[in-house]
Design a protein that fits this description.
about 240 residues; alpha+beta; two-stranded antiparallel ribbon; 6 helices
């Protein structure tokens, strides 16, 4: 199992590098749900890290539901159905892996939309450099999601030319760019002809659409419009009574 872990990418804090190294075999299906991942001491030896650093990486994965820490047994890849809390920032690659599938993606379009009306949903100030990407995600070879994404290049300048060769934009942003606030808008719509073609659906098929913006200290980082076939997505929320 320890041999499945790549070298660290040397970007950002060490615990985040280890976290990303652990996510990769989960996201690509190398470690299926229920798989016992390497022990803490093995990860410590693999990367020459302190115990608390490795513990923080594992704790982060557990908090996101990617792994489950079982007393007296160890840490295993979590097995969860493909439903997500409505207000959570989720990672489509990790979600596919948790469901036992193999995730893949392709970038269909990539460019800049500075002072272009298509950059308006991001809500950035006039003149802000903005990257736009159109991405198609797959689960076991079947189209699962169309992602249109705008990224504030004043906050994330590296997004203009990289670094999405090995990880899709959403996965990379969650792992590397801190955010302090998020906004979700959820709706349903019939698949437009181009959307239907990309998702291999009949035009007009019901789709679930999630529009999401994230901010860092009120500065917009990214906006994404995520379109899924309606039958392949469930969003779940749990509430408590208002005690006021």
């Amino acid at each position: 199992m320890i041999e499945d872990l790549d070298e660290l990418d040397r970007q950002g804090p060490l615990w985040q590098q280890i976290r990303r190294a652990l996510i990769r075999p989960i996201a690509d299906g190398t470690w299926a749900p229920g798989t016992k991942i390497p022990k803490e001491y093995e990860i410590i030896e693999r990367y020459g890290a302190a115990r608390m650093t490795v513990h923080r990486a594992l704790r982060s994965l557990a908090a996101e539901g990617l792994v489950a820490r079982r007393r007296r047994f160890g840490t295993v890849v979590a097995a969860r159905p493909p439903e997500r809390p409505v207000l959570e920032i989720w990672d489509i690659a990790a979600e596919v892996a948790r469901a036992g599938g193999v995730h893949a993606f392709e970038i269909l379009e990539r460019g800049r939309v500075d002072d272009d009306p298509r950059g308006a949903p991001l809500g950035a100030a006039a003149g802000t450099p903005i990257a736009r990407l159109l991405v198609r995600h797959f689960s076991d070879g079947e189209p699962l999601q169309i992602e249109e994404r705008l990224i504030n290049l004043a906050v994330v300048p590296e997004a203009e030319t990289g670094p999405f060769a090995d990880a899709p934009p959403g996965t990379w942003l969650v792992a590397n760019v801190p955010w302090s606030e998020a906004e979700h808008v959820i709706s349903a719509e019939g698949a437009a002809p181009e959307t239907a073609r990309l998702l291999e659906l009949e035009p007009g098929t019901a789709c679930l659409v999630v529009e999401r913006r994230t901010f860092a200290d009120q500065i917009p980082i990214t906006w994404a419009r995520l379109v899924h076939p309606g039958e392949k997505r469930r969003l779940v929320a749990r509430f408590r009574p208002n005690e006021s």
